[in-house]
Structure formats: C-alpha cells, structure tokens
C-alpha cells in the first residue's frame, strides 16, 4: 500500500499527542510536516509539546512549523470566545488544565520548530506538491489552513482532502453549542466548509465511540515502548481529570481519543461506520449558537449543497485494534 502523505495541524494537548505518535509510527502514513496552532494551550506550548512527542517517538526529523496564536476573528468581538463560554467553575478550569496541561508529561527537548511560519510553509508545500497528493489532517482550530486558503487560493485544488476532528450534532459539546475546535475559530471552519475541498468531519458524535479505558491503557503500556507508555499515561491523565469533574469520560465511558480517530480514519476510513454526505455550515451569529455546526436536513429539496462527509459513529473495536497495532509495530 502506498503511504498516505499527510500534513498534521495540531493544538497539542493530550489526544493530539497520541494522534501525532500514531501518525508518525503508522507504516501506511508519511507525515510531510506538522503545523501547530493555539487551542488547548498557547501556541508556544502546543509547539513545544509537539516537539516533545516527536522526540519521544524518535522522529525528530519531521519538521514542525509554528502557526497562529489566535483565531481569525472570534476573540475580536465581545460575543466571542469569552461570551460563548458557560461560566466555568474553578474546578472546570482546573479540569481543562488537567486534560490538556501546558506541558505534556515528557522531558524537555532540544528540538526546535523550523523558522518558517506554518501558513507560509503550508502554501509553499502545497503549491510544490502534485495535485491531490497531500491530505490535511487538522485536529485543532483550523486557523492556519483558513489563512493559507485566503492568502493563496491556488492551494485549494492541490489538497487531496481534509480529514478533520471537529463539529458536533447529537453530542452535547462542552461550550454551549459548539465543539471546541470549531468554537475556538468558527470563521476559520466556515472558510474550509465553503472551499469546495472534500471534507470528512470526524465529529464528537463519532469520537464518542473512540474511548479507551484503563484495561486498554494497561494493554498498551505492556507494549513497553516510549510512545506506548506516553499513550497509556495520557489515557490515565484524561480519565483522572474527567472523573474529578464527574464527566462522562470519568463514568467508565473511557478517555475519548478524539484526534486519534481522525488519523485512523485517513488510512482506515471503514472505522467510521455511519457517515452522512450532507451540508454543514457554522453559525457565525453572535448568539448562543455561535460556532455550532449546522447540518443540512435531509429534506428532498434542501437548498444547501452537500459539502461535508459528517461522521456520526465509529467502530470502537476496530479503532483500538488499529491503535494497538500501530504502537506495537
Ligand atoms: O473537541 C475535541 C477537540 O478539542 C480535540 O481536538 C481536543 O484536542 C480538543 O482540542
Ligand atoms: Ca486537538
């Protein structure tokens, strides 16, 4: 099988970290480079965390490019990020930091990001690539890709497809109405959705089926490699943080490895067991639904063109077997 060429765009955080490890270890994937963005934590930390993961995986050769610190527009308005957030208890804020700490449980690294900014590198790399050669896999806010599309629309026909982690429809998102990656930068996601590029949206509805429990974490730890230990550590970290807040993950559901499912879907699309080819657009109003991903109704005369393959379910067993196999390779 020819390796699938991908560019990861990450806000490394705990599930991003496992997604990076899985991508660079998967023999069916060639990671051309990794772009970082502000999201779970500040971009200086998402970049440093990404470098630490690459060191842990022995893949310091993979280039990392630092991207946008802030979203396109959502923090400019008073109704933006701050207003959309439900009043968070001190406990909730502490839990978020526990799920996505500023620094991953890995030693500091001497690896550094390349000097080019992520957006400049994205544009140059896509323009120099063959048509439909590279798949973009964003698993954080999609600010970098939106900026690149606006800065040089010639990259749009170059992109093979976008397989992203984001969106929510039937699963209650943590931010009122919007899944976190979309909520951070709603305008950016809408730019992608209007670009005409084939988009597979691995939503919270699908990643709810990509939860791993302690037993599975222990099976992974028994593999005995550094990436496997990191994966087990991060699963335990997420479970502990969620249990502290009584979140569903802490109620025996398991740690939802959102971003890892998106990487799995690139090389094993059959892991996504229910996909709607539908219209999807982001509410950019200034109300409570700001950032909500609004799916088309399957009415016969729905006026909206179908611009998204929206994944609703995933095969939990197939997902775990794939991740375990990649870490054991
Ligand atoms: O909603 C899940 C997404 O938000 C994941 O990408 C996770 O890393 C967080 O960024
Ligand atoms: Ca992420």
What does the model show?
This protein has about 325 residues and is of the alpha/beta class. The chain has a single domain, classed as Inosine-uridine Nucleoside N-ribohydrolase, Chain A (Alpha-Beta Complex), CATH 3.90.245. The chain has helices at about 15-25, 45-55, 80-85, 90-100, 120-130, 145-150, 180-185, 185-195, 205, 215-220, 225-245, 260-265, 315-329; strands at about 5-10, 30-35, 65, 135-140, 160-165, 200, 210, 255, 270-280, 280, 295, 310-315. The strands form three sheets. An eight-stranded mixed beta sheet has the order 3-2-1-4-5-6-12-9, sandwiched between helices. Helix 4 packs antiparallel against helix 11 (about 225-245). The mean pLDDT is about 90. The chain binds alpha-D-ribofuranose (RIB) and calcium ion (CA). Calcium ion (CA) binds near residues 13 and 40.
What would you say the CATH architecture is? Alpha-Beta Complex
Quickly name the level 1 CATH class: Alpha Beta
CATH-assigned homologous superfamily: Ribonucleoside hydrolase-like
Number of strands: 12
